[in-house]
Every structure is written in C-alpha cells, then in structure tokens.
Specification:
This protein is mainly β and 134 residues long. 3% of the residues lie in helices and 39% in strands. The strands form 2 sheets. The protein has a 6-stranded antiparallel β-barrel. Strand 4 and strand 5 form a beta hairpin. The protein is elongated and about 55 Å long.
Length: 134
C-alpha cells in the first residue's frame, strides 16, 4: 500500500471547518452494497441502518497535527506525516516522495526545525530524526 493510494481531489468548500451545530445533523456517506450506489444521509439516521448481527467498531483515537511540509537539501518539496513517536527526537512516518528520501536526506521545515531520514522500513514508512534549534 502506498500513501498515493489515498490521494483524491476534494474541493476546499466540501471540507467541514467546524463541527455541525447539531452533531446529529452531520452528514454521512452511505453505500448500498446490492446496487453499488452511494448516497448521502444524516448521521441521526445511523441507528436505523443497523441490523441484527451487525458489528460496530468505534475509533476513539485522538488526532494531532502530524503533517509537516518541508524542503529537502536539494530544494525538493517534501511532505512528512508523523505516525508513531519512537523516542524524544525520532518518528516513524509516511513520506512523499518516499522513494527520493534516502537515509541521510536532510529536510528543513523552517528556520527552527530540521530533520534527517534515518532509514526506510520494510512496510514503506521512513524514520526521521529531528534537530530542534533552540
């Protein structure tokens, strides 16, 4: 699986900037498996879509701002998406363009934050160590 597998165009005006005033009025995408048809509905109707024997899995993970945009030492634009903290200065991350980010590649995320790719993992991630100025 590649990070690019999840790329798609989504116009800014379709991205919610704030939660709905009434949470139950938020929208949800529906899929009719029999007809392969997509639909749009209110989340308040979700309980009516459940059938006996259905299993619901809840995700209560917290999201943090993990997307970093930087520039490599060759001037190429780089995107790093932090996944797991390894220690005080190192992270496991998804990277774009991953193929060009070999071990030892330096990336600048502004004047005060720099990083270096330390290795590629077998599952397509990179490990990056950060150097914090001040």
């Amino acid at each position: 699986m590649k990070l690019s597998d999840f790329d798609y165009y989504l116009p800014d005006q379709l991205i919610a900037q704030h939660p709905a005033a009434k949470r139950e009025a938020s929208r949800m995408l529906t899929v009719d498996r029999a007809t392969q048809a997509f639909g749009d509905d209110e989340f308040a109707k979700f309980p009516h879509r459940l059938r006996q024997g259905d299993v619901m899995v809840l995700n209560n993970t917290k999201v943090f701002p993990a997307r970093l945009l930087g520039v490599s030492d060759t001037g190429a634009k780089v995107e790093i998406f932090l996944v797991n903290k390894l220690d005080d200065v190192s992270w496991r991350a998804l990277a774009r363009p991953a193929r060009r980010l070999k071990a030892g590649k330096r990336i600048s995320f502004g004047n005060e934050l720099k990083g270096v790719i330390t290795r590629h993992t077998s599952d397509g991630h990179v490990e990056i160590s950060f150097d914090f100025d001040d």
